[in-house]
């Protein structure tokens, strides 16, 4: 992890973010009909956001850890959805969407958003 002044706060916010994603992934499926494959857009967006979040907390050399961690999380959620049988189903295309989201998020981080937490801390300390 990057040497951040408010490391404990970043870790706590990361834990809350992951808890929300895990809860959202495992809660009983909604009875609201969604347009075809809209859930794939949700998967891609959530994992893209997670990749950008964690790439703000880790140096570029650690992005592979971010990728492995997020892809492991996605795989675990798909396996658990398949085992729980509460209106959720394990789908290969969900994992594909997760992977694409992580890839896009890390690509954005390489060119634009990486290390954002340091910039936020610098901005907060200057104001």
The total of beta strands comes to 0
Which stretches of 5+ consecutive residues score pLDDT under 50? none
Number of helices: 5
Shape: elongated
Radius of gyration: 16 Å
Instruction: Kindly state the percentage of residues in helix.
Output: over 70%
Strand content: under 5%
Q: Summarize the main sheet.
A: none
* Number of domains as seen in the coordinates: 1
The averaged pLDDT comes out at 92
Order of helices and strands: HHHHH
Structural class: mainly alpha
Give the oligomer, counting copies of the same chain as homo and different chains as hetero: single chain
Termini separation: 25 Å
SSE order and pairing:
Blueprint: H1 7-26, H2 38-55, H3 63-84, H4 92-113, H5 116-126
Helix pairs in contact: 1-2, 2-3, 2-4, 3-4
Structure overview:
- With about 130 residues, the protein is mainly α.
- It has one domain (about 5-125).
- It is built from five helices and no strands.
- Helix 2 (about 40-55) packs antiparallel against helix 3 and helix 3 packs antiparallel against helix 4 (about 90-115).
- The longest helix has 22 residues, at about 65-85.
- The relative contact order is 0.19.
- The model has no long low-confidence stretch (mean pLDDT about 90).
């Amino acid at each position: 992890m990057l040497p951040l002044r408010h490391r404990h706060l970043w870790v706590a916010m990361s834990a809350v973010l992951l808890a929300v994603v895990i809860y959202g992934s495992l809660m009983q499926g909604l009875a609201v009909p969604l347009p075809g494959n809209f859930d794939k857009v949700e998967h891609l967006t959530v994992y893209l956001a997670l990749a950008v979040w964690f790439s703000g907390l880790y140096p570029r050399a650690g992005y592979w850890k971010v990728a492995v961690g997020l892809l492991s999380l996605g795989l675990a959620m798909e396996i658990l959805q398949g085992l729980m049988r509460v209106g959720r189903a394990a789908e290969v295309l969900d994992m594909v969407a997760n992977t694409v989201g992580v890839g896009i998020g890390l690509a954005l981080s390489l060119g634009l958003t990486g290390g954002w937490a340091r910039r936020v801390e610098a901005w907060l300390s200057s104001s």
